[in-house]
Write a structure and sequence with these properties.
Number of strands: 4
Helix content: 25-40%
Shape: globular
Number of helices: 3
Distance between the termini: 23 Å
Largest sheet: 4 strands, mixed
Amino acid sequence: MSVENINKIDFMGIPENEPDVVSLAISDHLAWGSTTNEHLYKLQEKINSYIRFIEGGEIKSNFPGVHKDAKKRIEIYFKNNPPDEVMFFFDEVEKVLAEVGVSLRLKLND
């Protein structure tokens, strides 16, 4: 799975050290550069798909081990770190997700 498979959940699980959290992960292997706007659009569509999955109750039917009060988090794993000039996008995403009770974590390459 990847960021390009908009209607698929890439990975989902409960972190060992956070049993009250359900993590839904996005695998982003795309390069940045001349296609930055297209890249951001794909991420936005993928995130919207994850929100629908959570809000529509599919998270519970597809993962029965999820406690109804579990915290939800979307994690984006980047192969190529986003450039500084697009980080505003993730700030805005974080605000939108907070409104629906979901947190965001970016996993950048060091």
